[in-house]
Amino acid sequence: MIEPNYYHNKGTDVIKMIELLRGEQAAKDFCVGNVLKYAIRYDKKNGVEDLKKAQTYINRLIILEGEENERRNNS
Question: What is the CA radius of gyration of the chain?
Fold first, then answer.
């Protein structure tokens, strides 16, 4: 997983921080935006590294979707 230290603020994951401050949909939108960014530019900029970054955001989106589905099923 590509997750440099600068994506964290005092130990809090940036995506988790967005979710806490702006809600789950904002966190999902952030992930989708980054998937698009890295997937669109991969062949012009960083190649496979950008594809791995896109994959990281897809994985986070899957986790967010799973958490939402779990909450719905428990309601």
Answer: 13
Instruction: Give the residue from 61, 66, 68, 18 showing the smallest Cα distance to 8.
Output: 18
Candidates 70, 53, 68, 64; CA nearest to 18 is 64
Whole-Å CA distances, 64 to 40, 44, 58: 23, 29, 10
Alpha helices (H) along 1-75: 14-22, 24-41, 48-74
Per residue of the chain (75 residues), what is the pLDDT tens digit? 455 665 555 677 889 999 999 999 999 999 999 999 999 999 999 999 999 999 999 999 999 999 888 888 888
User: Taking a C-beta distance cutoff of 8 angstroms, is the pair 56, 38 a contact?
Assistant: no
